[in-house]
Amino acid sequence: MTETPAAEPTPPPAAPAEDAPAPSDPIAEAVAAGYSFEGAALELGGLMLDADRLADVHVRIPLAMLNRHGLVAGATGTGKTKTLQLLAEQLSANGVPVFAADIKGDLSGLGVPGEASDKLTARTASVGQEWTATGFPTELYAIGGEGVGVPVRVTMSAFGPTLLAKVLGLNETQESSLGLVFYYCDKQGLPLLDLADLRAVLQYLTGDAAGTAELKTIGGLSPQTAGVILRELVAFEAQGADVFFGEPELETKEFLRTTDDGRGVISLLELPNLQDRPALFSTFLMWMLADLFHDLPEEGDLDKPKLVFFFDEAHLLFNDASDAFLDQIAQTVRLIRSKGVGVFFVTQSPTDVPDEVLAQLGSRIQHQLRAHTPNDAKALKATVNTYPNSDYEDLGEVITSLGIGEAVVTVMNERGAPTPVAWTRLRAPESLMDPAPTAQMEAAVAASPLTAKYAEAIDRESARELLAKKLEEGARKAAEDARVKEMAREQKNERVTKKSTPKAAKEDDGLVMDVVKSRAFKDFMSTAAREIARGMFKSGRR
Could you tell me how many helices (H) and strands (E) the chain has, helices first? Predict the structure, then answer.
């Protein structure tokens, strides 16, 4: 009998090797391919597969594409400021100057090396970041010298009527009328340097007789409208806004500087008490951008931008803005790219930015949005619709579940096409993530060569002084005219007096002759003669 061999047991499945590649993820594959660039790029962070897992895929943004503008958005406390800080650091390291409005004072820490901690080390390790505490070259500015920084001023003429109308909250008719006032000053040779100059012009046109006559020659400007503008201007000045206007006017070329070792200088504009004058601050930043556009030459496509401009609290710029003002912003953003300048708007929601501007923002870094109210849900839906097609089943859910320091990212690749949407854990800044010590900031400002150039205000002859001279000359001429009229009147009275005296004498002479020739006078004289003769000879009546 043949013995049947026993069946060999089926071996258990082999355990996967520890170094075996992880199962492929379609999103990870798409992101890895989409963010692989040949040229220089800024490192944003690592791709997250879900709330707890990261892929070994780096999310980046091409340096050459940063002049295609961008948006950093998210609810309060989600990490927008740290993202701005991260971008500014890497731009500076790549030789690109940066301008940013320091709304809360946190960005002043860019000039101070950061401080390591266990939490920071764990975060940087998770995204493959080799973190080194580093301070970056910074220049501190303060509008009108209010705060710690080199004073920043602008002349009223350079600021212009369109931006000023936005600040004053004028309607379209009043804005047009304000433009006529600026035109009048230009034609009359009246330099508008500060608020006092413009106020003096309006007071002259509405309150002086000569000015009222000249007001009639300015087409379309009524006294009532001029009076409204004057009242708004006085209220604006009462808020302390006069410190923002004057000379010396800051040259915006100061924002384009690099250091001797090739790093870009980070210019930080301190904005204290933003809540008191939000429209003024945002409009002031818009003036800076418009002035850069005016001064810079056409550059075309560059390997890296000449400047990247961060516009924090951007919603303040667009609130209650006129159509003309929005058109100006959209045009400036659209055309300034060819000057080598990139603009990043930093705000809470993409819906804060008008569609014509939002359409020009090629890079999007979206931090967490909340959907606690119907309006929040509507804004979330609108935000999702601004992104290209995503591989995520529910991008809205991803955005609402983002943690602090996480963002949904899409940028423009080197061909100008949008990259895949990527859930990203952002890298940590290497500079101090807190305000710099005040003493250190004051020392830096005192040592800056720009302090000697811009610190002391200049008050040269302008519209106010010229109008004062004109009014003084008018008053002097009026006084002379009155004196001449008074002298003429006195001379006329004197001539009348002299002319009437001989006539009276002649009249008196005629009267005497009539009396002398009369019969009664002759009889009287005969009798008198006889009586005198008797007296002389002492021969009286008998």
Answer: 18, 12
Strand 54-62's sheet: what is its strand order?
54-62, 41-48, 422-426, 406-410, 363-366, 70-73, 341-347, 307-312, 98-102, 266-270, 138-143, 150-152
Is a pLDDT exceeding 70 seen at residue 542?
no
Distance CA 177, CA 228 (A): 10
The two three-digit tokens of residue 252, written as one number: 């915006």
Q: Which two tokens stand for residue 396?
A: 């809205």
The residues, ordered by sequence, that sit 6+ positions from 206 with a Cβ below 8 Å of its Cβ are: 212, 215, 223, 226, 227, 230
E strands of 253-362, at which residues? 266-270, 307-312, 341-347
DSSP SS3 for 246: coil
What is the rounded distance in angstroms from the CA atom of residue 108 to the CA atom of residue 125?
26
Tens-digit pLDDT profile for residues 156-174: 999 999 889 988 888 888 9
**H helices of 319-388, where?**
323-336, 355-358, 374-385
Q: Which residue, among 290, 282, 295, has the nearest Cα to 244 in the 3D structure?
A: 282
**517 pLDDT above the threshold of 70:** no
**The tokens of 181 are what?**
């006032």
Q: Are strands 422-426 and 406-410 parallel, antiparallel or unpaired?
A: antiparallel
- Could you please report the per-residue DSSP string of 56-79? EEEEEEEGGGGGG-EEEE--TTSS
Rounded CA separation 90/2 (Å): 81
Q: Which residue do the tokens 């930015």 mark?
A: 353
Give residue-wise pLDDT tens across range 270-287.
877 766 777 777 778 888
Q: Work out the burial of residue 441: count CB atoms within 10 Å of its CB; fewer than 13 is exposed, 13-18 middle, 19 or more buried.
A: buried
- Give the separation between CA 454 and CA 151, rounded to whole angstroms: 6
Contact between residue 264 and residue 90 where contact means Cβ atoms under 8 Å apart: no
> Distance between CA atoms of 34 and 347, rounded to whole angstroms?
26
Are 467 and 170 within 8 A, CB to CB? no
What share of the chain has pLDDT > 90, as a percent? 49
Taking the CB of residue 468, how many other CB atoms lie within 10 A of it? 13
Q: Cα-Cα-Cα-Cα dihedral of 472, 473, 478, 481, to 10°? A: 150
Q: Which residues contact 274 (CB under 8 A, 6 or more apart)?
A: 103, 281, 313, 316
pLDDT of residue 256: 95
Token digits for 379?
């804004």
The answer to whether the CB of 426 falls within 8 A of the CB of 82 is yes
DSSP 1: -
